[in-house]
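User
New here, explain this?
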Amino acid sequence: MELGIPVIDADESSRVVVAPGQPGLEQVVQRFGPGVLSAEGELDRRALRNLIFADPGKRRDLEAILHPLIRADMERRAAGAVGAYLVMAIPLLVESAARDRVDRILVVDADEASQLERLTARDSISLEQARAILAAQASRESRLKAADDVLVNSGTVAQLRAAVDRLHQRYLRLAGETQVYRGPSVGSE
């Protein structure tokens, strides 16, 4: 909530809806089997990732289970958020129907090499797995075409911070111009 702006993150919601005891986890296990659970009864994301990126049909099945639950969790959290505007961080926004539910689309962009490097480091996966993940998403070109605003994330932290500050001032002005400004949604690299 830096800058006083609430951020509702789809990745956070995706973890909430598959927490132990949640219907989302039960549905995932029912569809994909107990092999997607860790010894502690939590979702084994690596095992699930290996299943769904090897089979596009399984990926679509997972999305059919989780996307409505994630969307509902995000909407619940957004309803209680307070701020001049609201950011919905939705990595798969361009591919989803959620794009019709936001006022602006902000894409945080980086070149493919940077995306692959960050993805392999963040998820501790192979370059091949990272490429499969990127291939399953909207292309960089599609995301940029859909964007109302673009933050280029290839420079220094100070440069990115200055760009965020400029965009924040713009969104504050936009929020003041409309009665119901739902804020931007961020589609990330």
About this structure: The beta strands are 7-9, 87-89, 104-109, 149-152, 184-187. The chain has a mean pLDDT of 87.
